[in-house]
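Write out this protein's structure.
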Amino acid sequence: MATDTAHDNQLAQELQAQRKELQDHLDIVQELVVKLDQQGNVVSINRKGCKILGRSRAQILGQNWFDTVIPAADRPGLKKIQADMLAGRHSKSSQRENDIVTKTGERRRIHFRDTCIRDSDGHITGTLSSGIDVTETRLQGRKVAALQRGLSQAAGFGVLGEVAAGLAHEINQPLSAISTYTDACLRILDNDDPNLAQLRHALNQVNQQSRRAGDVVAQMRSFTAQPQPDAVLVGCNALIRDLMDIITDEAHNHQVSATLDLEEPLQEVSVDPVQIQRVILNFFANAIDALQTIPARDRKVAIQTRRDGDKIRCSVIDNGPGVAESTVPKLFDPFFTTKEAGIGLGLSICQTIIRHNGGRVDYQPNPGNGAIFSFTLPIPPQHDPGSITT
């Protein structure tokens, strides 16, 4: 009997040592790491998470994460995401951004990566999330957006103002990403034993985003000088997915529900990828502007792709007030606008871009309520019909 008791004590001590070792590893990580049980209660949280929240580990352990640190307006949506994960409706890890509230009432913007925790039988027992504080990065983005609006207003009918504002908007995204990954590199290097794999990944991201910024500048400089774009075969679905970080952030900031409705598989088209992404973002931004006149709970935007005969059609669909019938013939005319602060070049530039890529733009009312702005791009005749992409 005494032998059994000693054995149990030894197992308990080993388990305690393993838990301490795991907690020590989590405390080294320079990201917020939190584990929740099936009720959303905090099972564990690392030192960085406590620092961001301004709370001790004792003050947060056992508390309901959503009721304690999530703003009241965001709780229903985030609880639903948690419930979907626990029900197995997310087959792999997912990413999202949302605000948390610190002990002092300050709101911080966190980019989370979530995954499910399973027991030895494969049953989901909770979730594990790691998050990077991107508050300053998003604040920088809002400042650039404000600068963009100021440039457009000051320019009046000057094309230079539109180009400068567009450049500020387009280049902000890669610059913000570079800033985030550079901060991550510095945090990794601060560790006594830096994780070289994480460092290499972050540096690769910095390199990719730097190239993206360079591509944007080159496109903006050469747009008028080179009417024929440098075309490559690419899938519209891939172009849209590459924009999801921007789309998700803008949708959250304007309280809009954004969804994708992508036909798969889908043939590739021969286009300039950067220019086509500009058009998609412009259509999406216009949809968000239109939705500001309806209650936040009803705001919806869908980005859709379909095979349309020998073309690929990409549409941005909203459920806003729509477009007055009398203005439809002038929608894509230069300098025509229904916005108080607009100068009416956005849709005109989109039309020029799509024409240069061999396609057409169009508008039609959304049955019920709202607007559908679309463009079509031809499937190259020489494109192997058996070669398709998503």
